[in-house]
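Thread: quick sanity check before group meeting

JM: Hey all, I'm pulling together slides for Thursday and realized we never actually wrote out the predicted structure for the chain we discussed last week. Dropping the sequence here so it's in one place. If anyone has concerns about the input, flag it before I start.
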Amino acid sequence: MSKAYTYACRDCEGMEDCPGEVSAATQDEVWKLMELHAVIAHGEDPSSWDNETREYLGTLIKPK
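JM (edit): ok, ran it. Output follows.
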């Protein structure tokens, strides 16, 4: 069985009502999908996320 990773937007502070979830084989893939979700669903610019934000978001990526 291969390992996978997930991120649920609702786990992020302030996003409790968002149903967005992503799963992928690697954490790098999850990051790309998280960033795409942030752009499409929330109108955010992931390039503006500072290191503290990225560290926090990284804690929300979980092994599946």
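AS: nice. The CA atoms of residues 22 and 32 lie 10 Å apart. The chain has one domain: 5-63.
JM: adding both to the slides.
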